[in-house]
């Protein structure tokens, strides 16, 4: 039988990142516990252990005490850092005796103790001393649960009259590593994910924004959610976490370097601007804080249920959002909308700005394309002299490999809108090419320069599976990028068109092209990391050859406004990137895994997850797209390896290529054997 009548906890601070508790208890011997009845036991207040030979005067040749057991109950996740035994020991002592020695069997492992003669001389006149013995934390430790102790192998020892055990244990503080988002409106109400190390589901935590604390919503391991309280002031608030343990006062740690920024944005005015056939909503704001992405939410004043979210970007204190292509300003003319914005891509400003749709410049540059075509025809027809001059000027510039004169480019038809701008088929020096027009109206001059510089760099790249760039040019209104024409458009369009049969072998070959293009980019010095790899950026030519496009662009400073990216690409973005950690070529391998999934499922990943939840779901919780029922086991294994959370666990493209070769070989054999050379066999629906 075991008795643990009382214990008290004393808090002990070790170093700043942890705290310790001392559990200090004494206990009674088994025999005494057996002897007393319930009521009597309660009257004990010494809680001391007394041996069978309490007076310490009996024959030393017998066992001093029976086995003692006691229960030690540590809080979850605690670990013992030190343990001490305090014992009143008595002995027969004279100068001729050997030193007093004894051993304790702690959970059946012996630990030796020696009491030197000096100690006896200094401390013990009556031959009874009270002495503390420190047990090595690396030696025999007491355990969480039932412990046993037994005295054994002693010399010169008469008795042990009292034992006190002091165990110091410790629980580590949580350390916040990151919060998402790191800013929110001054009114509060932002759901902030607290990502930390050493945060344990067994404990209850409080989040404190400066001094304002509220409970953290049930924390999963390493992720908790807190609602930001109303900000007392605009600007930075320090976030800390407190937690409560069993009966222990609140402990807390201030993570001084973790800051949540409150903003107080006032929406002032709004207007619609138009550029190269696309419409933008520009919202004038006061109190803007620097940030990247932004969203505009426009709600029909008449029908508050009808609201649309536009993606955009913060620029010069304003928010610029892009209307969908289907936006028809003539139809919308005069309609009243309520506008609000979000700059953390999650919660919206409480203020709503009333706005009447009005096309300020209906005919100014409505059909820029028409203007361009007319101008070009004009140029061609205007006369030999002018034409000759323009040709010469252009030639001079293209010779140094730097420049494509927009006047030399004859736009034909729009092919689609890719990241950053619309893509047209065009004629350039008798060659059919594709041209991307990127509006520069809202771009800084520096960005334009940087952008063209990067295109020049890309022009030097040559690989059959990498889209060839011919060059770029600029005009007052846009940057023009000339590149190879890929007639079938993007792999995404082809995959989404489910009526179009694409057999498995073909899909594997397309994926192999993409992988070899990526392998080439990664093998350059320095490697080009794509960062925006997705089926939309894999272009397909007449012969089903796939080429990687849009690489490197994501690095430029104009990212955001025109790209489908602000949120659209989150599904392809590697978790380390979502978490804002440094990225490597392995980030592209992750994106490639999602592309593999697209080729398998012929669908868009995560149809049911709102895009902004992806940061948490993919980045923190680690979910991945649902794998549809299929019989390509090895393929799925490769795909899963490619989307491993730890970049170093993902294969690189050289290995992916080897695997794909194998799959293609198998598939070809299978098709030969099955003698169903149907080109349009579908694998699954
Ligand atoms: C100790 O045991 C108790 C009860 O079994 C358990 O709740 C607790 O988590 C354990 N603590 C440690 C540190 O293992
Ligand atoms: C143990 O030693 C302490 C200090 O010397 C003394 O106060 C206490 O009464 C002793 N306990 C027993 C049971 O002898
Ligand atoms: C915050 O998150 C909790 C739990 O996920 C959810 O119930 C709540 O509605 C969210 N609040 C806001 C303002 O998004
Ligand atoms: C936010 O700004 C508005 C207008 O500038 C001001 O009236 C309001 O008091 C501010 N709110 C807070 C909490 O500072
Ligand atoms: C808002 O008003 C200011 C001053 O009248 C003007 O300069 C600015 O262009 C306007 N912004 C928008 C987005 O309409
Ligand atoms: C919302 O408004 C848009 C354009 O004003 C309209 O096309 C759409 O049908 C409306 N949707 C609903 C649900 O009312």
UniProtKB/TrEMBL annotation:
UniProt keyword list: ATP-binding, Kinase, Membrane, Nucleotide-binding, Signal, Transferase, Transmembrane, Transmembrane helix
Domain of life: Eukaryota
Signal peptide span: 1-20
Transcription regulation is among the record's keywords: no
Top-tier EC class: transferase
Domain Protein kinase: 409-664
Molecular function, one GO term: MAP kinase kinase kinase activity
A Pfam family the protein falls into: PK_Tyr_Ser-Thr
Its EC number(s): 2.7.11.25
Regions crossing the membrane: 368-391
PANTHER family hit by this protein: MIXED LINEAGE KINASE DOMAIN-LIKE PROTEIN, SERINE/THREONINE-PROTEIN KINASE TNNI3K-RELATED
Name assigned to this protein: Map3k delta-1 protein kinase, putative
Organism: Entamoeba dispar (strain ATCC PRA-260 / SAW760)
Highest classification ranks of the organism: Eukaryota, Amoebozoa, Evosea, Archamoebae, Mastigamoebida
């Amino acid at each position: 039988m075991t008795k643990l009548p009382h214990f008290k906890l004393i808090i002990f601070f070790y170093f700043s990142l942890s705290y310790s508790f001392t559990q200090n208890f004494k206990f009674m011997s088994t025999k005494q516990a057996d002897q007393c009845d319930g009521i009597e036991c309660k009257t004990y207040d010494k809680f001391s252990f007394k041996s069978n030979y309490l007076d310490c005067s009996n024959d030393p040749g017998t066992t001093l005490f029976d086995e003692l057991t006691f229960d030690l109950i540590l809080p979850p996740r605690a670990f013992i850092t030190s343990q001490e035994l305090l014992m009143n020991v008595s002995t027969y002592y004279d100068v001729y005796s050997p030193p007093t020695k004894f051993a304790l069997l702690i959970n059946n492992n012996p630990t030796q103790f020696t009491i030197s003669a000096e100690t006896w001389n200094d401390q013990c006149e009556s031959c009874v001393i009270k002495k503390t013995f420190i047990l090595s934390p690396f030696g025999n430790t007491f355990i969480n649960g039932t412990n046993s102790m037994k005295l054994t192998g002693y010399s010169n020892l008469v008795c042990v009259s009292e034992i006190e055990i002091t165990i110091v244990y410790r629980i580590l503080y949580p350390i916040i590593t990151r919060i998402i988002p790191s800013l929110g409106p001054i009114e509060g109400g932002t759901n902030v994910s607290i990502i930390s190390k050493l945060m344990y589901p067994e404990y209850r935590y409080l989040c404190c924004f400066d001094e304002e604390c509220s409970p953290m919503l049930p924390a999963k391991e390493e992720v908790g959610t807190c609602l930001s309280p109303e900000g007392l002031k605009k600007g930075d608030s320090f976030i800390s976490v407190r937690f409560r343990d069993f009966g222990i006062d609140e402990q807390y740690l201030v993570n001084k370097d973790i800051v949540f920024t409150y903003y107080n944005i006032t929406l002032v005015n709004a207007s619609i601007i138009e550029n190269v056939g696309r419409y933008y909503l520009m919202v004038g704001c006061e109190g803007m804080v620097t940030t990247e992405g932004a969203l505009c939410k426009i709600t029909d004043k008449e029908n508050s249920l009808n609201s649309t979210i536009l993606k955009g970007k913060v620029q010069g204190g304003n928010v610029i959002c892009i209307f969908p292509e289907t936006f028809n300003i003539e139809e919308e003319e005069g309609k009243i909308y309520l506008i609000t914005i979000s700059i953390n891509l999650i919660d919206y400003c409480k203020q709503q700005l009333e706005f009447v749709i009005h096309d300020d410049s209906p005919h100014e540059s409505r059909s820029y394309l028409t203007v361009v075509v007319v101008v070009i025809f004009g140029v061609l027809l205007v006369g030999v002299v002018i034409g000759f001059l323009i040709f010469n000027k252009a030639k001079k510039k293209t010779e140094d490999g730097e420049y494509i004169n927009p006047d030399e480019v004859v736009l034909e038809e729009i092919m689609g809108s890719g990241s950053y701008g619309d893509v047209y088929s065009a004629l350039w020096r008798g060659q059919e090419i594709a041209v991307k027009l990127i509006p520069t109206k809202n771009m800084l001059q520096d960005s334009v320069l940087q952008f063209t510089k990067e295109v020049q760099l890309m022009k030097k790249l040559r690989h059959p599976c990498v889209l060839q760039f011919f060059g770029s040019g600029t005009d007052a209104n846009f940057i023009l990028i000339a590149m190879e024409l890929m007639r079938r458009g993007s792999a995404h369009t082809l995959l989404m068109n489910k009526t179009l049969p694409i057999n498995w072998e073909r899909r594997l070959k397309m994926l192999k092209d993409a992988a070899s293009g990526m392998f080439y980019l990664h093998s350059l010095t320095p490697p080009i990391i794509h960062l925006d790899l997705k089926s939309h950026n894999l272009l397909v030519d007449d012969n089903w050859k796939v080429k990687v496009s849009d690489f490197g662009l994501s690095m430029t400073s104009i990212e955001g406004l025109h790209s489908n990216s602000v949120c659209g690409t989150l599904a392809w973005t590697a978790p380390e990137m979502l978490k804002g950690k440094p990225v490597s070529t392995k980030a592209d391998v992750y994106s490639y895994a999602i592309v593999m999934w697209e080729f398998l499922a012929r669908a868009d990943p995560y149809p049911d997850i709102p895009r902004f939840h992806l940061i948490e779901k993919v980045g923190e919780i680690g979910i991945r797209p649902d794998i549809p029922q299929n019989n390509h086991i090895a393929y799925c294994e490769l795909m899963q390896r490619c989307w491993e959370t730890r970049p170093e666990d993902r294969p690189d493209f050289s290995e992916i290529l080897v695997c794909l070769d194998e799959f293609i070989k198998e598939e070809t054999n299978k098709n030969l054997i099955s003698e169903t050379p149907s080109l349009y066999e579908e694998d699954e629906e």
